[in-house]
Design brief:
Elements (H helix, E strand, L loop, with lengths): L24 H13 L1 H9 L10 E4 L7 E4 L2 E2 L1 H10 L7 E6 L3 E2 L2 E2 L2 E5 H19 L6 E5 L5 H11 L3 E4 L6 H11 L3 E5 L2 E3 L2 E3 L1 H9 L7 E5 L13 E3 H5 L13 E2 L3 E7 L7 E6 L1 H13 L8 E4 L6 H13 L3 E5 L10 H9 L3 E4 L1 H10 L2 H4 L8 E4 L6 H10 L7 E3 L11 E2 L16 E2 L5 E4 L12 E5 L9 E2 L3 H9 L6 E9 L5 E6 L3 E4 L2 E4 H8 L5 E11 L3 E10 L7 H14 L8 E5 L12 H9 L15 H15 L3
Helix pairs in contact: 1-2, 3-4, 3-5, 3-10, 4-5, 6-7, 9-10, 12-14, 18-19
The structure holds 5'-O-[(S)-ethoxy(hydroxy)phosphoryl]adenosine.
Length: 663
């Protein structure tokens, strides 16, 4: 449904300065060709750089596609890779995480915690010990995590993986219903939360949200509460326990042997929105996933021991799982982890963080950059950000203007700066510049090329390669390490959603175009998923929430362009007999979405109509609804999906726009 609402130029080229790996497109294309021809050997070469307890029997078990097993039979442990390895090396007392809390005092951050690899190792061991002894967590179990951006979040993730248990993190902007739904599906045994968290100067009361979720979460028996804000929370006797209390009696030097887990066993389940139905639990493995992260940390971020790395994402989303927790820690990097809003208390907060810690590798998002542009460049200029030597963006297409702004103000018009395309499903970066390997000229807004070992293509409706410059669907043609094992408890859906549109190939659900030089440009979603400030939401989930209101007979939610957030949802609602449109009802529906899905899904607007435009097979004509919401004509082409003629589309548009008063 989404398409860019800005123009791009295929011809604009910028070469970063001083890159020892500067290369030509042909050099890269040749290298890439070889890497995908021999992709199994190629990935095996990278996997040998990890520490395995037992080597794999087979690089790729492809006996039951699309359920692939990478490095089948091999044994390893993700927490061992992120901690034990470094503790045995000169990195033992190197700082792993510099954490900064949001509140400020006298112009300085009130709380900063610096945890070395040895600190992390000791704490993860202690927490693993506690989880095992107290809550009997073991391989095969799932623990739920609803924590804000505090060090205990990666600590619990690593502790679970040390035990061979899987974890399921729920983003702290999701509501109690969303938590309960995920905990029930994942069959989580316990949930870890906090007494609160700071965001934009406000305290988020996470514990009460969990309390509500607990009324519906059937499998969760205990709640562990980490102290963050010292907010008074309600503790249920026998069910809830403060983290500090749970840890009492755990020896300061507790050690838990890292479980030797199979490469193809689950590391975590992360729920993500799909086109239809409930959020899908993506199950990621250990061996393939860690191999992909190792490769991308090296190639895409060019990570070195001397770097200070900062990924601004929230760990509640896949970007944080891969590029705050497992990737950088596996590589032994020093990283910044920040609790709150990057523009609190003022627009310069993020730039002050770069200056304070001398951040050298920076991973950000288009939404963040657009917000900063609006705030004004004087805020950036207050700080020395010249430590930055490499930047990347993620989450949505980056508009050339946002690219150029950050490239000028922080990149000093010379550092490598890319837009990394990937998804929750892919586990790690798939299409990107690879400055750690070879640096090609940049183009503002492009994603660059598939990374080595990844066979991506833009295809037409029939699955044939699309011509240069023509829009098509993005597919991945070969299995890759880091791909999901399945959708949790729903293997049929895994096949249906990703491997049936173009049999045997992974259908990403994005529109993309390749330019005449072969660069990929991802244009936006081809389905009913929207990206609100980079956060992935399914319009279906919002529609299912709206329908629960007694006044609502039917609804359609679409994303409309937003200057800062990229896209925001608006709803079209058909009321049941006996209900009439009112401002109050609009307010109730907006509130319902906040309650059911969470504040990140807040509706920008609600329109009342008497009917929704439908195709012959009763599918809502989303293109028409969206055009009306945007006050723009629906265009004069039809697509196969429309099942309607131009006239029908025009009529439907005229009727709906007339009714909701938008033209
Ligand atoms: C979009 C986030 C263009 C895309 C890691 C994809 C992007 C969806 C980019 C996945 C980018 C992510 N350029 N589009 N650099 N990065 N996307 O699962 O539509 O939250 O399908 O994973 O985000 O969102 P998800």
């Amino acid at each position: 449904m989404t398409e860019l609402n800005w123009s791009i130029s295929f011809d604009e080229r910028i070469s970063p300065e001083g890159m020892p790996n500067a290369a030509k497109v042909d050099d890269y294309a040749n290298f890439h060709k070889k890497s995908i021809k021999e992709y199994k050997e190629f990935w095996a070469g990278l996997a040998t750089e990890l520490d395995w307890f037992k080597p794999w029997d087979k690089v790729l078990d492809d006996s039951n596609p699309p359920f692939y097993k990478w490095f089948a039979g091999g044994e390893l442990n993700a927490s061992y890779l992120c901690l034990d390895r470094h503790v045995k090396s000169a990195r033992k007392n190197k700082v792993a995480i510099i954490w900064e809390g949001e509140p400020m005092e006298d112009g300085k951050p009130k709380e900063v915690r610096k945890l070395t690899y040895y600190d992390m190792y000791r704490e993860v061991n202690r927490v693993a010990h506690m989880l095992k002894e107290k809550y009997n967590i073991k391989q095969g179990d799932v623990i739920g995590i609803y924590l804000p951006m505090i060090p205990e979040l990666p600590i619990f993730m690593l502790a679970a993986s040390r035990l061979g248990a899987a974890f399921c993190v729920v983003f702290s902007g999701f509501s109690s219903d969303a938590i309960a739904e995920r905990m029930n599906d994942a069959e989580a045994k316990i949930i870890v939360t906090a007494d609160g968290s700071w965001r934009a100067g406000k305290m988020l009361d996470l514990k009460s949200i969990v309390d509500q979720a607990m009324q519906k979460a059937k499998t969760v028996k205990n709640v562990v509460v980490v102290t963050r804000t010292r907010n008074k929370v309600n503790m249920v006797e026998g069910r809830d326990e403060y983290f500090e209390d749970a840890m009492k009696g755990v020896h300061t030097n507790a050690y838990v042997e890292p479980e030797r887990v199979k490469s193809e066993s689950p590391l975590y389940i992360l729920y993500t929105s799909g086109t239809t139905g409930k959020p899908k639990g993506q199950v990621h493995d250990v061996g393939g996933y860690m191999t992909l992260l190792h490769a991308t940390m090296k190639w895409v971020f060019d990570i070195k021991d001397s770097d200070v790395y900062w990924c601004m994402a929230d760990i509640g989303w896949v970007t944080g799982h891969s590029y705050i927790v497992f990737g950088p820690l596996m590589e032994g990097a020093t990283e910044v982890m920040y609790e709150g809003s990057p523009v609190f208390p003022e627009q310069n907060r993020w730039a002050s963080i770069i200056e304070r810690y001398g951040v050298s590798v920076f991973y950000t998002s288009p939404t963040a950059i657009r917000g900063w542009i609006k705030g004004g460049e004087q805020w950036v200029k207050m700080h020395d950000t010249s430590s930055v030597r490499l930047m990347n963006s993620v989450g949505e297409p980056i508009n050339p203007e946002a690219f150029k702004w950050l490239f000028r103000l922080v990149g000093r018009e010379k550092v490598p700066f890319g837009s990394t395309w990937w998804m929750t499903e892919t586990g790690g970066i798939m299409i990107s510049h690879v400055p750690g390997l070879m640096m090609l000229p940049m183009k503002p807004g492009t994603n660059g090329f598939p990374i080595p070992g990844i066979d991506a293509e833009v295809v037409d409706e029939k699955g044939n390669p699309q011509k240069a410059g023509e829009r098509g669907f993005l597919v991945l043609k070969k299995p890759w390490p880091g791909m999901p094992l399945t959708i949790f408890k729903d293997p049929n859906r895994f096949v249906d959603v990703y491997f049936s549109k173009f049999p045997g190939q992974f259908y990403a659900g994005d529109y993309a175009v390749r330019d005449p030089d072969g660069y990929f440009w991802v244009l936006g979603r081809a389905d009913e998923i929207i990206k609100v400030a980079g956060h992935r939401l399914g319009t279906y989930e919002l529609e299912s929430a709206l329908i629960q209101h007694k006044a609502v007979a039917e609804s359609a939610v679409v994303g409309v362009p937003d200057e800062i957030k990229g896209e925001v949802p608006v709803a079209f609602v058909i009321l049941r007999q006996g209900f009439i449109p009112s401002e109050q009802l609009k307010g109730e529906l907006k509130e319902l979405i906040r309650q059911q899905v969470g504040p990140i899904a807040s509706l920008k607007d609600v329109f009342f109509a008497s009917k929704l435009p439908k195709t012959r097979s009763a599918k809502i004509m989303r293109r028409v609804v969206k055009a009306v919401a945007m006050g723009m004509p629906p265009g004069d082409t039809t697509t196969l999906d429309d099942e309607a003629s131009i006239d029908e589309i025009k009529n439907a548009y005229a009727q709906l726009s007339g009714e909701v008063g938008k033209k």
